[in-house]
Amino acid sequence: MSGHKWKVDVLLQGNWRGASSVLLTGGSAPILVDSGMPHDAHQLVKALAERGLRPEEIPFVINTHFHLDHVSNNCLFPSSAIYATQLSSDWCRSLYSDFLANGHWEKLILKYYPETYEYENAADLIGKIRKIAQRWWDAKRAGTSCQFRWIEKHHLPDGIEAITTSGHVPGHVSLVVRNGSETTIIAGDALVTRTHDERVLTMIPHRRAQYLLDRKTILSIPGIIIPGHDQPFENQPCP
User: Fold this and answer.
1) pTM of the predicted model, to two decimals?
2) Which of 111, 129, 141, 184 could be disulfide-bonded to 177 (CB atoms 3.0-4.6 Å)?
3) Torsion of the alpha carbons at 169, 235, 72 and 151, rounded to the nearest 10
4) CA gap 47, 41 in Å, rounded
């Protein structure tokens, strides 16, 4: 692994409602990891331009999962191959279909998040997220069927390892990226923030116990960690 030389560059830093978007260069070809929300499209294109790149020059996109804040600008890259898990894609598309249906969504949400009402103020949180989904979710923005390269069947480029971190949603992956002896972990929402997940307007974990195990796994890897909704930080686990 020591020979791989991926440079990791945060294009959009994650925040309370927008996901981190990351550019990988120096390998076989430029790669974008997670494309963000529709209202961030101009910022994403501008960030690429500042690095001398146009969307059509990005041959590969990788999505950690299919929540709308991570995939809604995939449409800016119509000629790119999109790597993701089919499990995450199918699960999230079904979620949004049911979530946005009229009536009984409070019960339908338990099909996907069975632990919802074990959380304080869960109904209020889910209601806010549903309003965001009503405004922004558009499956067409996530890409076309011919673009997808399901990680279950296709290998990622050399020097990029996918770790299944399914506590957030089934099929979620985090990425371990190698640059010589240096390691960067693009956590996606397996690690939403370093310390203040409650400040982020995102879905609760699909399974809390698995989410906590996933977070522990991410924090056991030495290197730079890029959370889904926070600034990068250096992680040095205790021996």
Assistant:
1) 0.95
2) 184
3) -60
4) 10
Q: CA 156 from chain center: how many Å?
A: 16
Provide the pairing of β-strand 182-188 with 223-227. Answer: parallel
Q: In this structure, are residues 217 and 64 in contact, taking their beta carbons and an 8 Å threshold? A: no
CA distance 21 to 180: 22
78 near 100, Cβ under 8 Å?
no
Helix ranges (H only) for 51-197 are 68-71, 86-99, 105-112, 122-136
What are the contacts of 92-101 at 24+ separation with CB within 8 A? 92/65, 92/66, 92/67, 92/169, 93/66, 93/139, 96/68, 96/133, 96/137, 96/139, 99/130, 99/133, 100/130, 100/133, 100/134, 100/137
Residue 137 and residue 229 in contact, taking contact as beta carbons nearer than 8 Å: no
pLDDT per residue of the chain (239 residues) written in tens, 0 to 9: 445 789 999 999 998 879 999 999 997 899 999 999 999 999 999 999 999 999 999 999 999 999 999 999 999 999 999 999 999 999 999 999 988 886 778 888 889 999 988 888 877 888 888 889 999 999 999 999 999 999 999 999 989 999 999 999 999 999 999 888 899 999 999 999 988 776 666 778 999 999 999 999 999 999 999 999 999 999 998 76
Please name the residue that has the structure tokens 């299919």. 66
Query: Cβ distance 176 to 185 under 8 Å?
Result: yes
